[in-house]
Structures are given as structure tokens and as C-alpha cells.
Design goal:
Rossmann fold, 37% helix, seven-stranded mixed β-sheet, 20% strand
């Protein structure tokens, strides 16, 4: 089972303010239960790894969201999978409107189940794959993703959907912003944060970019 003490310790180490730990733990328990039947995460992932590599890793975005969020902010999570980071952020930030874009039906069924179970009213699941050149009709304050594509390919995928004021948050294991920004001259660097996961010490890099005018 997902360990409350471990989750709270990680949140404290990251100096985050999370009020709804109960719903994060219920989500974690549903993830473990459903993962026995469908492929949501690697089957050999331990409860400790789930807490750190999925939940705490997703919560790393909170400082950036707090820093840049206007009133009525929205976030698009592309290729949300089992809900990381978008569903975790929706629990932590109930005023944030979150869209989970996920093409695989079994995973969207799981996401909708968790949303109903936790009575979340700020999350929308869209069963769709974002294609190159496709422009989603909605406007988003933030767009992010975990491991859909390398940064240059991911930014190219967002070219039609991201608006000039949209902030794209790139989640990476290591900081290589200079390399991909050189390959993406139509994007500019807004901010960057470096972290270490509190339990394993593994590095994490968050880079915020925006379209050039």
C-alpha cells in the first residue's frame, strides 16, 4: 500500500504545501489496484517508487504553477497515461482546470474512475492523440507532459495548439535546455528549476518555455 508517512516526508522535503493528502493516497491505492489488471505503470514498481517517481515527481511542478498562475488558470497534460502529472496537480490545486489528453481507452477509463471516486470537478478527460499540426480549440495557460517525446519533437507537436502566452513546462531527468533551445529557435526560455527527488536523490529538471513573438 502507498505509505502516508513516506508521502508526507517527501512533501516536507520538497517544501510544498499540500492540503489534500488523503485524495492523493486514495488515487495511489486505486492505481495499485487497477495496475494488477491493466498496464498503467511498470508491474514491478514498488509502492515506494510509485510515491516518489509518480506522485512526488508530479508535485514538483507546483512552485512553477504558483509562480505563473493567473486567476482561472488551465493546464493541458498531453499523453497523461495514468494521470501524471495532470491528475496529481488537479488534486493539489482544485482551482486549476486540468485537461488530461490520453488516446488509450483503458487508461481513460481508469482516469474517469479516479475522477468520479475522488469527486473532482476540475478535471476533464479527452480520449484523443495530439497529432502534428493539430490545434486544439481550447486555450491553456500551461501545457506539460511526461515522456511523450524528446523536447524538440514535443514542442513541434505543440506548435499549433500553444498560444503566444501559453507556458510549456518540460519535465526532464537532466538539464539540457541549451541543446534543445538551440534546436527550437521559435521558443524562448522563461524559467528553469532543478530538483532532486527526496527519497532517491535522482535529479529532475523543469524548464518553462514560450513561443517567440
Amino acid at each position: 500500500m502507498c505509505n502516508r508517512k513516506q508521502l508526507l516526508h517527501g512533501i516536507e522535503q520538497l517544501q510544498l504545501n499540500i492540503t489534500d493528502v488523503d485524495n492523493l493516497l486514495r488515487y495511489c491505492q486505486e492505481l495499485q489496484k487497477w495496475s494488477k489488471k491493466i498496464n498503467l505503470i511498470a508491474r514491478d514498481t514498488s509502492a515506494e517508487e510509485i510515491v516518489e517517481k509518480h506522485f512526488l515527481d508530479s508535485l514538483l511542478l507546483l512552485p512553477l504553477l504558483h509562480r505563473f498562475s493567473p486567476a482561472k488558470a488551465s493546464l493541458l497534460d498531453v499523453g497523461s497515461g495514468a494521470g501524471f502529472p495532470g491528475l496529481v496537480l488537479a488534486i493539489a490545486l482544485p482551482d486549476l482546470a486540468v485537461t488530461l489528453l490520453e488516446p488509450r481507452q483503458k487508461r481513460t477509463t481508469f482516469l474517469r474512475h479516479v475522477i468520479r471516486t475522488l469527486a473532482l470537478d476540475n478535471v476533464h478527460v479527452q480520449e484523443e492523440r495530439l497529432e502534428p499540426g493539430q490545434a486544439l480549440p481550447e486555450q491553456f495557460t500551461f501545457i506539460t507532459s511526461r515522456a511523450v517525446a524528446a523536447p524538440p519533437a514535443f514542442l513541434a507537436l505543440l506548435d499549433a495548439t500553444a498560444r503566444p502566452d501559453t507556458l510549456v513546462i518540460l519535465m526532464q531527468a537532466e538539464d539540457d535546455k541549451q541543446q534543445f533551445l538551440a534546436a527550437c529557435p521559435n521558443w524562448k526560455l522563461i524559467d528553469t528549476l532543478q530538483f532532486k527527488l527526496p527519497l532517491s536523490g535522482h535529479p529532475r529538471s523543469l524548464t518553462v518555455v514560450q513561443k517567440q513573438n
